[in-house]
Amino acid sequence: xxxxxxxxxxxxIFQIDEDAYEQLNDYLVSIKTCFMNNECGEEIAADIxxxxxxxxxxxxxxxxxxIITISLVNEMIARMGKPxxxxxxxxxxxxxERGDEPSDKREEKREGAASSAEEYIRRMSMGKxxxxxxxxxxxxxxxxxxAAYLGANVTLLRVIAVILFFVTTFWAFLIYLIMWAVVPxxxxxxxxxxxxxxxxxxxxxxxxxxxxxxxxxxxxxxxKEVDNKGITNLLVILGCILFLSAFVFGVFNIPLTMGYGxxxxxxxxxxxxxxxxxxxxxxxxVLVLSKQWGAIGGSVKLLLLIDWILAFMQVSLIMSAVGYxxxxxxxxx
Amino acid sequence: xxxxxxxxxxxxxxxxxxxxxxxxxxxYYSSDIIDELERANLIVVEGTLYPLxxxxxxxxLLDYEWQESPSGPPRKYYKLTxxxxxxxxxxxxxxxxxxxxxxxxxxL
Lengths: 333, 108
What we know:
heterodimer; A: elongated; B: 4 helices
């Protein structure tokens, strides 16, 4: 599932996927910056945009859809040419006395145009930026993005994160959830370059785009599965927590109270159980009502059911251990 | 690689002249120019054409007018100006010379 919206490309309206939009925008911006020193730069960029609109028009009407995907964008970028290739074919990006000036001077001016374009992009980007790394994610790519940002080892950071989760009980996971919500996912080539701290110059973008091109269809095909993988992992982890806490608290009858009520550590697991017990049916009902239930993978549905049963077991066991009587959950809620 | 480089240099030298030759006959929509040039294997990436047209326009060698399109937004139709035709005549002359020189060297 991808977000998509309408875009006006050289006077034509298309529906475009979010990642395709970002990629196309990157390309058009890099074209514009390349011709920044040219007084007709705007016009050249507009002409190229119009031509791309025309090419997209021909393709999407042939395909019978009006949706521009990222693979189509990459195909058209290859067809129009990388900004550096277009610039390279320019004898002079300058006005006036063409042919009168010595060629090395012209060369110098072209260099000047390229470096000022780079300067512009550098000012826009200001170095490394924190992203979530969707290509190497386990849950949401927070830790792998952080690893790229810090230049640290992913596995090491993940181990630290798991230890932190247990040491700080719920707080580390809460921070993880907040970062999941706040830190953007690296979608476009510019994002991925900036995540790794590489300058997103037109040259670097072009290199990365051409480098990724053969794999791009494969990436798109895997995208839904990868998305499900994050949710699946989350549900498996939730199931493990519920099962272990139920096992420890219920079966071994570990005293949950220390004279002054429940221990905060245990209370957190109780809350995880109670929230799962309520939230899973609510989520399921919302999904069914919004007709999204069919879009969910079978393994996710199964895991939701297992997690709900585990939550029911855990909550019942804890309630009985605390002394409210087995299955008497409603009175405590 | 080296051969490709030389070929690309030759192509670049020819490109401007060929575009002007095309536009001398009738006015062209830029996408039709691209079609012609691609058929003749003169350009590799399409984006190259637009800075070239803009350059010729700046030199007042060509001009364009907007025309309604049967589908989609209006299109720019390019054609040579009188100055462009004059420049093309001198380019024709130097092409004849170049071709003569090349043939002459080949037949030495």
